Amino acid sequence: MMGKEGSMENLSLEDDDKLTSISKSYSNYRSAMTCLSDCHHPLSPSIVDDSVDPLLASSIQPSVIDDHDIVVEQFQNPTIISPPLNLEYLNITVSDPHKEIQASPSIVPGTNTYVTYLITTQTNLPDYGGSDFTVRRRFKDIVTLSDRLSEGYRGYFIPPRPDKSIVESQVMQKQEFVEQRRLALEKYLHKLAAHPLIKKSDELRVFLQVHGKLPLPTTTDVASRVLDGAVKLPKQLFGESGNVIRPQDVVHPAKGGRDLLRLFKELKQSVANDWGASKSSVDEEDKVFLENKERLHNIELQLSNASKQAESLVKAQQDMGDTIGELGLTFIKLTKFENERATMNTQRERAADMKNVATAAVKASRLYRELNSQTVKHLDILHEHLSLMLGIHHAFSDRSSALLTVQTLISELSSLNSRAEKLETATSKIFGGDKSRVRKLEELKDSIRVTEDAKSCAIREYERIKENNQSEIDRINRERHVDFVNMLKGFVTNQVAYTERIGQEWSKVAEETSRYSRES
């Protein structure tokens, strides 16, 4: 895109070769919207250089227009103001993708290599014990970090990690895919660094600081977990292994697959909640939470619609810039034609006027592209908050899962107590007792004690997740208010500023060609 812009700025009306080259290549230039369409979302700002916002500049200085060149006003770079020294910051950049060779060759062709990225961190957070760190990480490390955060911070709105797009890696050019992944990883780490709790977590700190292999435990794949659970299930059913939920297990969701018996019990409880005649003794009755949940659901729908409309606006502005640019190039050709065949002064005057129109059209095209870049940057807030909804759903799912565990343990405890009472009654009717029944009764009482402890732990975990949910709802509401106000201010201000600049260009042309109206 920059090559095209540079050509348009230095276009000489007498240079026929340059004119032909630009005319042919204009339709292929990559502007903001064209680049955006290659990404995962049309409003992704990663392609746009958002380091320069022309509205932050103290002044706008036009370039000098040469008699034979069509040039465009350049907005000056804004003055960068350093943040206060006492302001906490955690700046993370992802760069220098490098292909590595797998230590153990893979049996699958083409999968024995992977790409690592240089993660550079600058921070003044005391938790990090330093200010500058660099490590190399691969995408699998990002997956591990995401899994550890999801397990350790249940109930929090953890930003979702980028997907592992295997299909895209095969379809797209390798270099392009690696660059898009780099941008996605950097964006993901920025979101983690912006979270008030996650940015100080041990998991993120280890990820950013420790060299070599990531020292966080990796998550076993689903197939392996289910296989382990299947091996353990017969022992649980026949009493060879513990068939009660242990206290240390309730802080993790059952859907992991390692304990299929617990999974079946919670599935049974879920069906009973939905279809059973009796209501569970513990239910979700927090009206404030339910109202917030419904409100966030409606916000998600509105954000989805607004994001689509923002995409349409970006596309429309892009088309407008393209069309005006094509118009300018057409008038350039017409001007050259008139100059070459001019025999009268009136023809030369008309050619000069067409040159002015061409100049204004090319300038307007450039301004539309710059406006589009700023529009993408500001309206991307809509997509950012929309993408966070996945993390919100996961946090609410943590809450539902924890509640289901509590309900399951209460039902399990009720069943164990009922069985113990019946066995105790049957044993008391036999003179001298029955040793096997007495032993069975003791085992039941042990199970009841373990289940009681597990229930207490599950209730504490559920209450902790509820508190996390509420604090995160309050936080996201505050952040959304601030972000949307800034988004609207930036969007409206840019629209006004660029519209005025475009209007000024056409006003110059109208003034220069005003004699036509006087003559008529």
Automatic annotation (TrEMBL):
PANTHER family membership: SORTING NEXIN 2B-LIKE ISOFORM X1, SORTING NEXIN-RELATED
Matching InterPro entries: AH/BAR_dom_sf, PX_dom, PX_dom_sf, SNX2A/B, Vps5_C
Coiled-coil spans in chain: 406-479
Limits of the PX domain: 95-215
Protein name: PX domain-containing protein
Pfam families membership: PX, Vps5
GO molecular function annotation: phosphatidylinositol binding
The species this protein was found in: Solanum bulbocastanum
CDD domains assigned to the protein according to its UniProt record, in alphabetical order: BAR_SNX, PX_SNX_like
PROSITE patterns linked: PX (PS50195)
UniProt GO cellular component terms: endosome; membrane
Highest taxon above the source species: Eukaryota
Keyword annotations: Coiled coil
